[in-house]
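Target chain:
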Amino acid sequence: MMKQLAFAAALAVLPATVFAQSTGPIIPDPAGGTTRDPALAAGAVAGFRTYVMQQSVPSYRYSSPVVVGAILPDEGIVYREIPAEYGAPGYRYTVVNERAVVVEPRTRRIIQVID
């Protein structure tokens, strides 16, 4: 009986440990705490920077610091889809204060600043 309970407890904890091992940078969550978000694949950053420069995306003027975790406005700024070859499916990018940023589209939160 004790072995069955231990086995059941281990199975209950297993999914939580699998999801806890997410990759990506740790960023502050505006609601409190931190979260992990995937960003561009490490080797794709330089290529993505070149891609954005070639697109001639207009830069949005933003009065607050352009940092990971900042929430961008939902109006007056255009968010563009990131091509699949850069490894960030479902995420968007834009240019803010002359800096390319990767944004989580639902929250408009910056998850990576491309320097």
Notes: The longest helix spans residues 2-20. The chain is about 25% helix and 20% strand. The domain at 24-114 is CATH 3.10.450 (Nuclear Transport Factor 2; Chain: A,). Residues 13-31, 33-37 have pLDDT under 50 and may be disordered.
